[in-house]
Amino acid sequence: MQLETRDHVPLLTAMLSIAALGLIFSAVLGVIPTRLLPRSEWFIGLIPHLNVVISVIAIGTIIGGWRAIRRGEVESHRRRMLAAFVLFGAFLAFYLYRVTLEGPTDFGGPDTVYQFLYLPMLAIHILLAIICVPLLLYVLLLAVSRPVEEIYRSRHRSVGQIAAVLWLISFSLGIAVYAMLYVVY
């Protein structure tokens, strides 16, 4: 498996990215039939709060992974970044479940705040999250398809640094969006 994956990382990244983004856009655009999902009102109401906790933990995990690799602690870096990827997956699964059944949450604040603060922040958050999908899949596939010594000769570090920064910004903006939807307004 490792040898087969190593030779096809860009292709696998493209295929997985298309599948993941297709699922995301299908949920957001209401293409997924709601009858296919069990409905749990209490869980649907819990998801935004659960996702903000996941986001905070993911930010800590990403920063911890970044610091670990700077100290040369490869195994700690690997564990933390895999944990961050799993947290991202959980966040996404919960979000897609909620948005498929409920649609997006309406902003309850003033129009001026909506137009000049909330909407641009939400747009950047969404754009970065979309950009992160292929970047994260790429660095993950590089990491799992190569021995550690070979990873240093791949694009894992350069792409990973970009992915981590965008990932941190996206998670942080997601927390700000949550605050505007559920705390401030």
UniProtKB/TrEMBL annotation:
InterPro entries in UniProt: Cyt_c_oxidase_su3_a-hlx (IPR013833), DUF420 (IPR007352)
Residue spans crossing the bilayer: 12-32, 52-69, 81-97, 117-141, 162-184
Pfam families linked: DUF420
Gene3D superfamilies, A to Z: Cytochrome c oxidase, subunit III, four-helix bundle (1.20.120.80)
Single GO molecular function: cytochrome-c oxidase activity
GO biological process assignments: respiratory electron transport chain
Cellular component terms per the entry's GO annotation: membrane
UniProt keyword annotations, A-Z: Membrane, Transmembrane, Transmembrane helix
Keyword Iron-sulfur: no
PANTHER family per record: DUF420 DOMAIN-CONTAINING PROTEIN, HYPOTHETICAL MEMBRANE SPANNING PROTEIN
Name of this protein: Putative membrane protein
Native source species: Halohasta litchfieldiae
